[in-house]
Amino acid sequence: MSEISPEVPDNRQDAPSHVDPNSTRITKPGVKRLVLTLSVLFSLVLGFPFLWKSVEIYRSSLPFGEISEMESNPSLSFPCRFQAVFINFNSNPSPNHLQLSILDKITELTSNSSQCGACANDLALSVTVDSISSCTQTHPTDNSNYYRCGAISAVDFDFSNDDDDGVDELLESVLGVKNVYSVVVVNGGGEGIRAVVGKYRHAWIVGSVEEEEEESVLVSRVAEIFVKMFVNGGTENGLIHGEFMPVGADRRIVLSFNLLNAEPNDWVYDWDFQRVDETLLAPIIKVLGPIANISVESQVLYHTPKSSFSYWDEKWKSYIFSTKDLPFFVNSNEWHLDTSIAAGGRSKILQFVVYVPSAKECPLSLLLPTGEISKTNGFISPMWGGVVVWNPPGCLNSETNHPSRHTMSREDLQAVFEVFMGQFRQLFGLKSNNLYIGASGTYHLLPSGKGFTEWELDVLSRQFACFNLHSCATTLGSLSRLSLPRMIIMDEIGKLVQFSLEAAKLAQSNASLGDNESSAVSSGQARSLAEDAFFHPSIMSISYYSFEHCFAIYSPFFLPVSMHVLLAALREWKRYKQEKAKYTAWKAKVKVES
Q: How far is CA 392 from CA 2, 256, 258, 321, 332, in A?
């Protein structure tokens, strides 16, 4: 018989039979379901920052303010120190009057140009009139760097002879001060006026001056030498248009010399290039060191015909190709020139080609538009290099049936590389001849055994520094504008940008001090570092991790769960508010009835 348990009394208040459960609740609603639902929602919300942090893109801080400041003003200010020395003037002209006249002429010559590397804002001129009886001069700020009275009279100068090299060396011993450009004007030496620009940083003008008109001509010539020669480098325009120098972004140039035998069945020529490298190229590489790191290579190629046609001209007794044929002369299909392994990264390769024609078109000559035969028998292609057509000696009389091997003579190599030197200077924007015709007259330019005179190197250094700083500012500005919110910027990029800005500031500081070489080196480093930062491999990740890409990856996982949790929390909150309202209404009703 089963045991019957006693009934447990129910202490809960029985709900009246007339209570409507849809509108009234007599028990307090529980919060367990609400707490559980909200805890899941809060856990999801609190976990979102950790998720966002886990997929955050690393960005090194870039100095955007400094980049913007340099991009807005990337110019350099070079100081120019000029001095004019007038010798043997009987009329004793006032140095102050001459100074004002020369400065006015300099201002007139520089008014239409605003090239980087000029010195319109920082120019100093000293004028000295050193005659037999007296010596007067203006008072420059630093007397130690300018001419001292009687210095030229104390040395036995003979400006009237043709020994320009000797006069140049003597003037260097008297006026040889770095960053000071001098023009010596000598009254005497016969009829006419003769102007010579030396290898260093000085020039001299010799001529008889008796009238004020001739004195004004001398003033114009002095100012023209200062502006057109020492500032602009003998070019009509000193403005920077694009990459005016054939120098790579990493400050490297590879000079590739190629000897091309068009038809080795006729003859084969070789050369002693090592001797050329040691004697002719080594001084050039040394003097251009502040501008570029130059390396040299050479090769001999065979079966390399040209692409253009030539014709026989009885007048010149030669096969002729004209300037119209130059775009088709280089045979890119047969001339395998770009085989250098030394040019890595962003180095610049300059090709210099010695073309040896076949017996069927020898001698081969270039006909100029003037109707004359080119003396150099060569041409240049900007930013590519130069070509020289070398006709073997006695090629018209060569009737051998078997190819013969020869070596270019030392004299032929010397002549060819003199042409290459002129082409190399043209690629750098300088004159290839020794004559400059200006508005005030003709000037004879003394050549340098190193290929470039000191004042030309100063011009190249200033222009190179200006171009590098412009390029650096443009590259860093593009990098700052490219920095999108989801773009990875590694610490290495930030360091490269910082080092580039520091090198650019150092270039500006060296330029203000007149140190052209150091300014060129620092600006080249600034440009190279800016290019390295812009082309850093990690920047390419921007193509694969944009915000849209991130949303497309994570939304299929988290969006459905988040929506369900949010809707459940809203639904539970709404239910809890409704049940609580019912209970509150019942409590109020019971209180009124009691």
A: 135, 22, 16, 17, 24
